[in-house]
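As agreed, record passed on underneath.
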Amino acid sequence: MNALLIILLVLLVISGLGLILFILLHSGKGTGVSDMIASSVYSTQTGTSIVEKNLDRITVAFAIIFLLCLIGLMIVYPQGHIAQR
């Protein structure tokens, strides 16, 4: 395995886990459990909007990194398998 493959795979795993974490941290739009938790954690509306904006930015950053790693892996290994050398 070369260094580029290892770097892309590590970034792919980290960004995938980050996406899962930050998507789950977003508050729901309904009256479910996530709204109950969010309302107890954030007492003011202004703080919630700032937190939501930051969560959106971080989530988008993780998604861009994830997609770039996928595209990089498709370019490096277009056949879909890693050749043993």
